[in-house]
Amino acid sequence: MKRTTLAAAIACLAAPAPALAEGELHLYIWSDYITDAAIERFAEETGITVSVDVYDSNETLEARMLAGGSGYDVVVPTTDFMQRQIAAGVYQPLDREQLGNLEHMDEGLMARAATFDPGNEHGTVYMWGTTGIGYNIDMVAERLGEDYEVNSWELLFDPEIAAQVADCGISMLDAPTEMIPAALAYLGLDPQSHSDEDLEVAGELLASVREHVRYYHSSQYIGDLANGEVCVSVGWSGDVFQAAARAEEADRGVNVWYAIPEEGAMVWFDMLAIPSDAPNAENAHLFINYLMEPDVIAEVTNYVWYANANRSSWPMVDAEITADPAIFPPQEVMDRLFTGVTYTSREDRALTRMWTRVRTGQ
Amino acid sequence: MSAPDAVPSASHAPLYRRLFLIAVVALALALRFDLLTLEAQTAGTLTLILWTTALALIALEASDALGISRRWLVIALPMLWLFVFFLVPFLVLGRISIAESMIARPPYSPLWERGSDGSLEIIASLDNYRFLLSDALYRNAYLSSFRVAAISTIFALLIGYPLAYYIARAPEPRRSILLLLVILPFWTSFLLRVYAWIGFLRRDGVINNILTWAGVIDEPLVMMQTDLAVYIGIVYTYLPFMILPLYANLVKLDGALLEAAGDLGASPMVTFLTITLPLSLPGIVAGSMLVFIPAIGEYVIPALLGGPDTLMIGRVLWDEFFASRDWPVASAVAIVMLVLVVLPIMWLQSVQNREVPK
């Protein structure tokens, strides 16, 4: 899917803002987050040529959006990042006239996403998921007993319990915006707290278990969980399922599973948005509307194992996925999920600094 | 053209070259204003080629018109390269480093602003540099980067010197093969080679499997996410940069000097220490520079192989740029880094230059 060729790089140098011919669409999306079939079908139906580039972190997307002139028409930011980017004027308001399929969207989920973007003015939900615990069933049982049920953040944040599984490898996401709210939830504090005091306490908790953490990384755990290199990871739901699928495929006795801790976990939304300087805004609307076709998005969910927010599509999603409480959580779990926080620049700096202290002890 | 005497010197340039120049510029402009439709990538590549050609032709015209020798054009290309890819980015960084971070696109304050009365107001401050001094984190990150780079350089030297020495002394067919083997890894992407090390070092990796099989260890060794892995990665990656300059130096060593030393009763060790080593000093310096400088700013290797407490300036830079979204502070970190690396090199060079005339 990656088409960043040398020629493209040169093209960027030579012509920073190439005047693009009609009938094109440039999609910038997370790696492994859409099917080739979905893109091909769109191209066939509309005659629009689609090019796809991929990224693996919100930060990468954000840097390109803030620099401007990216040439992309549709991008997929996560809600908390998107809120700040909207403030910076990075996205254009969607034209709802061109998005008839909005009627298929689940109102409750769209409302949750709207806490970051009032009125869902700049985006619509593509996929959503949770940040929870991925773990190796056998390795954890071996160390904590067959009866131990993984359903609490204590597995990572209680130094005594973490110490018992440390030898088979603990990993955490390398993102304070994910780890701090999780720590706050474990402590019974408001996971969306902005108070310096709360953030400080959460930082101390994270620092107290640092010696048990093998590494902090936001994608490496997928492969490592799958081959038994680590046994407990804070991870994104779909990524952990990907690890589980890989482990099953490899068939080497590694069994990976995912749990949403009972103290609560973060729910996040990846949004389809159009940059304010998108060269093909009209095609972008066509594409977003196409991705809200129930049968199209159902197929994508069947592939990526992330839940979509398209209510009409759910009957068409594999029963294995819709029945999975970790992907489509039941209402009582939904009630315990909290959305992420968009911090101010000052708080961001303090959090980054705190995170460096947690990670390195400096 | 029938009466060359009447033509002023500036138009001695052949007519066809000017016609060519006009054609090139016309084509480039046609592309720019979409009079020609090509695929975006082809158009981009073609545009670059056209403008470069046009610039070269204009330079030729100008040098002829001004009566300057064309020889300077030869240096002009590397100069232009340095200007475009080194000086300009450096100035851009410098400019961002004196701005203020803000939520906007781009995420920093403009260099100047029109006041309400129409006066120009320049927004610039050294606050970002002051900020770097206020937190020990940055000093520690610089120091630890220097330490990692220095230790890696020493190991690369200890491994690279004997290798270079051996290659330089090997008889001809073997020497070429050995040299080829040193360069061979470059044929694979650097990233892939670092990833390959993960396969060696991880819990279920090649090294642990062999040691377990041989009965040396019962429990797999944890080698990934440690400083050891970072050192292995850096030394492995940059070893060729140490070997090649050393080889180039050692292969020129005059064998007669060594024979003379031997004839005068020096042991091989003494010969090495008093003749070979001092004479190969320029090679050692060049090789060490080539390892030390990239190692100091290394980001990929510690990110892939290192553990959480590996603090290097590359990571701090990443944090400032991406996590804190503070492009000005990130730029300041980069500028300070550059100054810290470039100044010692300039000093070293001036020392070397002073030694040469002796």
From TrEMBL, chain A:
Any single Gene Ontology cellular-component annotation: periplasmic space
Domain of life the protein comes from: Bacteria
Keyword Signal carried by entry: yes
Coiled coil regions, renumbered to chain: none
Main location, first listed in the record: periplasm
Classification via InterPro entries: SBP, Sperm_putr-bd
Span of the signal peptide: 1-21
Pfam families xrefs: SBP_bac_8
Subcellular location: Periplasm
Gene Ontology process terms (BP): polyamine transport
Alphabetical keyword list: Periplasm, Signal, Transport
Gene Ontology molecular functions: polyamine binding
SUPFAM superfamilies found in the cross-reference section: Periplasmic binding protein-like II
Function statement: Required for the activity of the bacterial periplasmic transport system of putrescine.
Family statement: Belongs to the bacterial solute-binding protein PotD/PotF family.
Protein name: Putrescine-binding periplasmic protein
Species name: Pararhodobacter oceanensis
From TrEMBL, chain B:
Residue ranges occupied by any ABC transmembrane type-1 domain in the UniProt entry: 142-348
Protein name: Putrescine ABC transporter permease PotH
SUPFAM superfamilies recorded: MetI-like
Organism: Pararhodobacter oceanensis
Protein's membrane topology: Multi-pass membrane protein
Presence of keyword Membrane: yes
InterPro entries the UniProt entry points to: MetI-like, MetI-like_sf
Cellular compartments annotated: Cell membrane
GO biological process: transmembrane transport
Pfam families: BPD_transp_1 (PF00528)
One term under GO cellular component: plasma membrane
Membrane-spanning segments: 42-60, 72-92, 141-165, 177-198, 228-248, 269-296, 327-348
Family as reported in the entry's similarity comment: Belongs to the binding-protein-dependent transport system permease family. CysTW subfamily.
Keyword terms of this UniProt record: Cell membrane, Membrane, Transmembrane, Transmembrane helix, Transport
